[in-house]
Amino acid sequence: MTRQITLPFDWKSASDESDFILSDANAEAVRHLEHWALWPVRASLLVGPPKSGRSHLARMFTHWSRGTVIDDAGRVDEQEIFHAWNAAHSSGKPLLIVADAAPPAWDIKLPDLASRLKATPVVTIGAPDEALLAAVMTKQFHDRGLQPSPGVIDYLIARLERSFAAVFEAVTRLDAQSLAEHRKVTIPLARKALGLDQTFIDES
């Protein structure tokens, strides 16, 4: 399942992006954030790899709930997260904590914060399948004003590491190579820019 999520009418005024790709990898997280009023505590932890759309989803959450987000929480002072968790509990205004991993993989030093996060629901953006990666890549090309030649996306998805970060890096490098050479994004350009093999697709 990969489709565009239906957003609120005024969504474009609420974010710097206008759409979100909904798939099996993130559907559970979307449902959880949409139903924030049902959370057992006033906080949740959203876990997902970089470039997975987790920050975009967090912005959607703030639009839905008017809540607070702490993004990339592993780099944020633990006291700040602790006080934000307490403030959410006392005010009823929900808090979303976004991180690469959940405790104990995310090593929390502050015991009071660790105990609170232990009671905090965790939702995860899962590993992407090929259909989702292709949709993400298509959107990233579109956002950069690029129109890859037929077959380019299939060629890349078959060869890249299956991760959001790999797709982002590939599109970034292809964008730079296309600009430098004033060429369209084609399979030969992709092979040159990314050092990929020459098999799989007819380039004629």
List the helices and strands and how they pair.
Layout: E1 2-4, E2 21-23, H1 27-34, E3 43-47, H2 54-65, E4 68-70, H3 78-91, E5 95-99, H4 111-118, E6 122-124, H5 130-143, H6 152-157, H7 164-181, H8 187-194
Parallel strand pairs: 3-5, 3-6, 4-5
Antiparallel strand pairs: 1-2
Helix pairs in contact: 5-7, 7-8
Brief account:
This protein has 204 residues and is α/β, with parallel strands linked by helices.
Characterise this structure.
- Helix 5 (130-143) runs parallel beside helix 7 and helix 7 (164-181) packs across helix 8 (187-194).
- The protein is built from eight helices and six strands.
- It is an alpha/beta fold and 204 residues long.
- A four-stranded parallel beta sheet has the order 4-5-3-6, with helices on both faces.
- The chain is elongated.
- The two termini are 32 Å apart.
- It folds into two domains: 2-124, Rossmann fold (3-Layer(aba) Sandwich), CATH 3.40.50; 130-194, Helicase, Ruva Protein, domain 3 (Orthogonal Bundle).
Number of strands: 6
SSE ordering? EEHEHEHEHEHHHH
Total domain count: 2
The pLDDT mean sits at: 85
Helical content, roughly?
A: 40-55%
Key traits:
204 residues, alpha/beta, Rossmann fold, Helicase, Ruva Protein, domain 3, 2 domains, 4-stranded parallel beta sheet, 43% helix, elongated
